[in-house]
Amino acid sequence: MASGPGLESLVDQTISVITNDGRNIVGVLKGFDQATNIILDESHERVFSTKEGVQQLVLGLYIIRGDNISIVGELDEELDSGLDLSQLRAHPLKPIIH
Amino acid sequence: MLFFSYFKDLVGREVTVELKNDLAIRGTLHSVDQYLNIKLENTRVVDQDKYPHMVIQCVDYNSVFSFCKLSVRNCFIRGSVVRYVQLPPEGVDIELLHDATRREARGG
Fold first, then answer.
1. Quick one: average pLDDT of A2-12?
2. What CATH number is attached to the domain comprising B7?
3. Which 8-state DSSP code applies to residue A81?
């Protein structure tokens, strides 16, 4: 059967992953598999809050298990660098409830 | 299989995917796979003010309307987290779907 939309086109690109617990992790996609397990290099987490601007926590090389992934977004680096994260306020994302 | 084939036919349409964490993303259906993982292009978040997580820059035109450039344009959504896929009514042939599901129910 056709494997359809793989993450192949996103390898070596900067991506933004939203996990099931509502975390947002940005990094370079190095590898993936059919279960959507992901290898993310140079990753950092962006913590949103309603009180202060966005916090960035450096993580390094991560493997994220596919079970925990909800969205993998292709990040447009130019646009993203124009973001003023200190001004951004948001409620944290809700967790995934099956 | 039925819905996999159905979504394959809907490639190119504007759809809104609502996730189990209440996030709703609108975009053009680019591709789908056997797990019903969905790839969307030209994505925008519905209710952007509440969910600026994929947003880059908001320009506020005197609060009359604000324009937001998204730093995430294309995204891959895992099938397991989709709650709804909202389709354009013109894109749906109810009779065809009805027949197909009846056949599937009989054969399955």
1. 77
2. 2.30.30.100
3. H
Please tell me the distance from the alpha carbon of residue B17 to that of residue B83, in angstroms, as a whole number. Answer: 8
In chain A, % helix, strand, coil (3-state, to 5) comes to: 15, 45, 45
pLDDT at B74 over 70: yes
Mean pLDDT of all residues in chain B? 83
Of A73-82, B33-42, B81-90, where does mean pLDDT reach its minimum?
A: A73-82
Q: Which of A4, A74, A84 sits opposite B32 (nearest CB)?
A: A4
Domain limits at B80? 2-97
Helices vs. strands in chain B: H and E counts, helices first = 2, 7
Size of interface A-B (CB pairs under 8 A): 110
| CB–CB contact A1 B34 (8 Å) | yes
**Per the domain annotation, does B74 fall within a domain?**
yes
Is residue B82 a part of any domain in this protein?
Answer: yes
pLDDT level of residue B58 (50, 70, 90 thresholds): very low
CA dist., res. B17 & res. A64, Å (int) = 23
Reported pTM: 0.84
**Is residue B71 domain-resident?**
yes
Determine whether the interchain pair B56/A80 forms a contact, defined as Cβ–Cβ distance below 8 Å.
Answer: yes
Domain assignment present for residue B92? The answer is yes
**Which residues of B make CB contacts under 8 Å with A?**
19-23, 25, 30-34, 37-39, 43, 50-57, 69-78, 80-81
